[in-house]
Design brief:
The chain is mainly alpha-helical and 466 residues long. The chain has helices at 2-16, 20-33, 42-45, 48-86, 93-114, 123-166, 174-182, 186-205, 210-213, 218-230, 233-247, 256-261, 266-282, 296-301, 308-332, 339-353, 386-400, 430-436, 452-465; strands at residues 375-380, 407-412, 422-426, 441-445. Strands 2-1-3-4 form a 4-stranded parallel beta sheet, sandwiched between helices. Mean pLDDT is 83; it is low at 356-364.
Length: 466
Amino acid sequence: MKEKVQVFGRFLSGMVMPNIGAFIAWGLITALFIESGWMPNESFAALVSPMSQMLLPLLIAYTGGTVVAGQRGGVIGAIATMGVIVGSDVPMFIGAMIVGPLAAWVIKKFDKLMENRVKAGFEMLVNNFSVGIIGAILALVAMKGITPLVSVLNGWLEAGVGFFVNHGLLPLTSIFIEPAKVLFLNNAINHGILSPMGIKQVEEVGKSVFFLLEANPGPGLGVLLAYCIAGKGSAKSSAPGAVIIHFLGGIHEIYFPYILMNPLLLLAVIAGGASGIFVFTLMDVGLTAPASPGSILAIMMMAERHSYAGIILGVLIATVVSFVIAMPILKFMGKDASLEEAQQKKDSMKRQAKGISEAAPAASTATVSAKDIRKIAFACDAGMGSSAMGATVLKKKIAAAGITGIEVIHTPVSSIPKDVQVVVTHQELGERAAHSNPDAKLILITNFLAAPQYDELVEELLKMRR
């Protein structure tokens, strides 16, 4: 069951994460120009509803369709999703997540059926009209057949969340959210339930607390601060750096190994998360769009204009509660496992979450001379979090060594550019990276922040340039 949920969450994340910029744009326009915004403007505020009801669902559908069947899948996914958009008066994010990939699957099966059956010279005619005809049919089917089903599903989700809200039980969601983050189940919860509910709430009241439930950095910050004081060995020495990356950089994954070193610390993050949510609801605060990554900077940028004090207080309370509970656990509740063992456990869980087999390639079969290296790519699942962090570290090392003429980028592992000569990625993503760009030299690491392979690569580049 856990693996199925992880696969589901990974697929949802693949549709939503590439479009986070559009969500942020919508959130900024909402925060600025709606009636209760910073600069109320009726003309500009007219953008809010069309963006949430049409632009964002279509982007999700196109991205989901592209994942399944390339550009043709994206186009027909967007066409079919217009059916659920027009058939409903609420934002159809869940509908887009269903219809977009489903329509792409249909066109993929059609293309397979017609393979080697189209006469030469008629390929473009068949390709264009197949997308048009099948897309039109699917849009009608989605409008009359799928929209009612999605509306019922939305109703169930609203009822479930409404029960927690109406009975003052929303803080209890931390019992599920905080362990889910450590087990890499957060995408299914965040993108499948919380974001769609949050978008609808923003349209109604201009802000939503749902965007804060998973993004709050307070619980993880409290645990890391406790390690700074009461930790031992490498865990204590690495915790201050992890604090900066987690709190300011928004890469929550950095604190997962510290929890796995002592699973009792789940009590700390659950209590911290619940305390933060209690403050958020008590002070009636919220964001205008998802905060991604979960950095305090991103959260404050997406905060509704009257919510700054409540959000800061909620994050602070969550941090303090998590810290207070974590301290005695670290001091008196047994000896921690090593940070290296915890990282291996975290990597194993991440591997399961990404649907990757246990085996990973030990090295690249591609041979690239150091003197030919002009572009290096860091690749992670979404190309936005740990890969960006690793790219920054290597850029600084290359600059410090006085090496010029080499570009370092970060990218999703599934779409590594072909003009890249070296790919650096986590060892569990090696197989996917090799398939994405088989001509590049592959460097496999276990820690994007401090991999010894960085210094080895810089030394190799220096030797070839002497």
